[in-house]
Structures are given as structure tokens and as C-alpha cells.
Write a structure and sequence with these properties.
- Helices cover about 50% and strands about 10% of the residues.
- Strand 1 and strand 2 form a beta hairpin.
- The protein is globular and about 70 Å long.
- The mean pLDDT is about 95.
- The protein folds into 2 domains: about 260 residues, Hypothetical protein af1432; about 110 residues, HD domain like (Alpha-Beta Plaits), CATH 3.30.70.1370.
- It has 22 helices and 9 strands.
Length: about 425
């Protein structure tokens, strides 16, 4: 007799369990394409083990989404009266329906990623497009019609949960749909974040992304944002899980500062983007679903390997930087002393260096997180609901991720380092004088 439940071995979650219908969906062309999209772009050039793909990450997100759904919908975990009207009863048809939808939304939440994931996204799509919009297009495309028919689910429900209200603004979300999308893409307890931190940490060989996700998931609850019965429901946590929540957000901070924004990793993203601007027709990715599904990291890799060998090829210089490891070198990085004098010190040095050495010799990578601590409701042991920022000093004082990396070509490196040593203080002090 054929098995109905199948087990997939996974280095992070040990086993990921799927049923026979879900296994057939794994074999679909849109999902199989994710086997050939690196999770961390060219990070394997810095961390050799970071060769994992969006395919296994998406499986992990599906597994965690199912776990969280089961926890937050369990009757014994619905402890506030305002939530009882929102969550379907376990015996209701809606309960089983939405469990299928959330697992599929989690499985397909990254299906619209471009080759090399985020590294190739900025500046390489037409205005108004990003990988979330491409995900919506694929989920609702004729390519996926038979898949959703076999599951008896509405593709628009899958699409809404996969990207959330911030990225699907034209759709109307009920309180229940907003909560379910939050399980996948939420800032506080989104399982997308949980899986990528654990998985990226594992494959890169660093410890920064580890936290007690078992305890965290077991204590997640649907709660009103305050004790007011009329308050909008959202994902929160029981008091006993607050340290796991702190660990998750600290893990995010450390992974961003130590891995995702590693300067050599960032400059490879820039070289890849420069190559693609020359290699792609009109310098942009197509937003046509069929074209997207035909393009993976394999085609791009073959493109820059060939371009690096042939001097007359489009994107030769950028490709050579990647293939021959002739990447631009770090000239300057943000530090507290300079920021205290000039909050835009990185951009000031970049502009001055461009003026002196020419824009082709200088690159910059900048990022600043919009906020630090994340506010979510905490259910106290005495049944009061309080803000996480009131309860946790660690969350309230969470450091902000901020980087400025200025890079210089290898040919101008020594000259640029000498120039910066002689002019750095004057450049940083420009804003003070103004």
C-alpha cells in the first residue's frame, strides 16, 4: 500500500513531513526551479558551506508554519475572549482548509525570487516590481491552476498569506487572514525569518543565528494588542517565551552584522548586479512568468564564467571580479566615532572618493534598519497583556543594524588607502562645519 505521509530529511528540522498531494506539488516546475536559486547568492565565495538553496528553505518554512498554526489554533491556547471569535474551531471545515492554505503559502512564499535571490533584485526590475509581486504572479498563473485545483484551495488565499498585506495592498485581509500571513512573514514571529536564521547559520558554519525555536513556537499565541476586547488580534507570546523571542531578534541582529552584511559578501552582490546590468536584455529581468521560470542561477553562472574569459563580452569587468576573485577591496567602513561627528560619514567619504578616483573605481553598500525593538503583546502569568517593549530591556534597547562600506578597485587600492589616511578627518568633519 502506498504511503500517504512522506518524510524528507532536513539538517535543521530533522524531518519535514508531507502528504502525497503535497509531494506532487513539490514536483511542479515553479517549485523545482528553487533547487537552482541560491539562498545567499554568492556568499559561498566567502562561506564555502553556504551553497543551500531556496528549495530547502521553503520546505522548512512550510514545516514551521504548520507547527505554529497547530499551536495557536489549539483550544487550550486561545486564552483571551476577543480571539475566540477569530479562530475556527478544530472541528470546523475552515480549520482544515486554512491549514492547507498556510502550508502552501509558506511553501511558495519565495517562488518569485530572481536568480541569486536578493543580490540581483535591486535596480534590475521595472519600477513597481519586486520578488513578492513576482510571487503573486506565479501563484495566480495558469501554470499553477491544476495544483490549486488538486488541493481545492483558492489561489488568491494562498497569494495573500504568502506575501502579506504590506506587499499585497490591493487585497482586503480579514483579521484571520492577517494573522495567518503574519505567521509566515511577520516581523516578530514570522517562520520565514526563523528558518532562514537557523538554516543560514547552519550552512555558513556560524553560531550567530541559533535560538530556541522549539520553546518560542510552543509559547506563541494569538492575542489582542492590548487588554481591550476590541483591540485588533495579532501574534504575541506567553511570558515564558520572552527570552526565546529576545534570542530570535538578537540572532537576527548578529546574522545581519556578521554574515549578511559581511563586506566581501556585499561587494560580490555589487559585482553581480553590475554584470547583470550588462548581460540582461535592456539591463532588466523580464516580469513574464514563463521567462522567469526559465531563468535560474545556472544560466547566470554560465554567463559570467563565459564573460570573464572573453574580454569583448558584455559585463566582462564585473564577471572577472567574481570569477578571478579580483573583487574591489574595503576602503572604509562605518564606525561610532565618525558617526558621532557626521551621521552620513560613509556617503561623504564615498562622494569624495568618487570625485578623486572616478566613479568606476569606487563602490558603496549602505543600509540602516528603520527601527530596533519590535512591539508585540505578551501574555503575563497573571493574565494581563503588556507590550514586549515594556517588559524586555533587551528588546527595548536592541541595536540598530547600520552599515556603510566603501570599496575601491584593486588597482587603486594602495593609492586610495593613502588618500583616505590623509583626508579622512577633513571629509568626516565637513558636516560639522556646515
Amino acid at each position: 500500500m502506498a504511503k500517504y505521509v512522506h518524510e524528507i530529511r532536513d539538517p535543521v528540522h530533522v524531518f519535514i513531513r508531507i502528504n502525497s498531494i503535497e509531494r506532487n506539488i513539490l514536483n511542479s516546475r515553479p517549485f523545482q526551479r528553487l533547487r537552482y536559486i541560491h539562498q545567499l547568492a554568492l556568499s559561498y565565495l566567502v562561506y564555502p558551506g553556504a551553497t543551500h538553496k531556496r528549495f530547502e528553505h521553503s520546505l522548512g518554512v512550510m514545516e514551521l508554519a504548520g507547527r505554529v498554526y497547530d499551536v495557536v489554533t489549539a483550544p487550550e491556547n486561545i486564552k483571551h475572549s476577543s480571539v475566540k471569535d477569530v479562530v475556527p474551531l478544530p472541528s470546523a471545515h475552515e480549520h482544515g482548509y486554512w491549514r492547507v492554505v498556510i502550508r502552501m503559502a509558506a511553501l511558495f512564499h519565495d517562488v518569485g525570487h530572481l536568480p541569486f535571490s536578493h543580490a540581483a533584485e535591486e535596480e534590475l526590475l521595472p519600477s513597481g516590481w519586486d520578488h513578492e509581486r513576482l510571487t503573486l504572479e506565479i501563484i495566480k498563473s495558469p501554470e499553477m491552476h491544476d495544483i490549486w485545483e488538486s488541493l481545492k484551495v483558492n489561489p488568491n488565499d494562498v497569494a495573500k498569506l504568502a506575501v502579506g498585506p504590506k506587499k499585497y495592498k490591493e487585497a482586503r485581509f480579514s483579521d484571520w487572514e492577517a494573522i495567518l500571513s503574519e505567521i509566515i512573514v511577520g516581523d516578530a514571529f514570522g517562520v520565514d525569518r526563523m528558518d532562514y536564521l537557523l538554516r543560514d547559520s547552519h550552512h555558513a558554519g556560524v553560531s550567530y543565528g541559533k535560538f530556541d525555536h522549539y520553546r518560542l513556537i510552543d509559547t506563541i499565541r494569538i492575542l489582542p494588542k492590548s487588554d481591550d476586547d476590541s483591540s485588533e488580534p495579532t501574534l504575541g507570546i506567553e511570558e515564558g517565551g520572552i527570552h526565546s523571542a529576545e534570542a530570535l531578534l538578537l540572532a537576527r541582529y548578529f546574522m545581519y552584522t556578521q554574515l549578511y552584511f559581511h563586506p566581501v559578501r556585499r561587494i560580490y552582490d555589487i559585482h553581480l548586479k553590475d554584470f547583470l546590468k550588462n548581460w540582461l536584455p535592456d539591463g532588466l529581468f523580464s516580469t513574464n512568468v514563463s521567462d522567469l521560470l526559465d531563468l535560474t542561477d545556472n544560466e547566470v553562472t554560465a554567463g559570467f564564467l563565459k564573460a570573464a574569459r572573453e574580454k569583448d563580452s558584455s559585463g566582462h569587468e564585473a564577471a572577472k571580479c567574481i570569477v578571478n576573485r579580483e573583487h574591489y577591496r574595503l576602503l572604509y567602513q562605518r564606525n561610532p566615532a565618525d558617526v558621532a561627528r557626521n551621521p552620513d560619514c560613509g556617503k561623504s567619504i564615498y562622494k569624495a572618493a568618487c570625485a578623486f578616483f572616478g566613479e568606476s573605481s569606487i563602490k558603496i553598500s549602505s543600509y540602516k534598519q528603520k527601527g530596533s525593538g519590535i512591539d508585540f503583546p505578551v501574555l503575563m502569568n497573571d493574565n494581563r497583556i503588556v507590550s514586549s517593549l515594556e517588559m524586555s530591556d533587551a528588546l527595548r534597547n536592541m541595536p540598530v543594524v547600520a552599515i556603510d562600506h566603501v570599496f575601491v578597485s584593486t588597482e587603486r587600492r594602495k593609492e586610495a588607502e593613502k588618500w583616505l589616511s590623509e583626508n579622512r578627518d577633513a571629509i568626516v568633519a565637513l558636516l560639522e562645519e556646515e
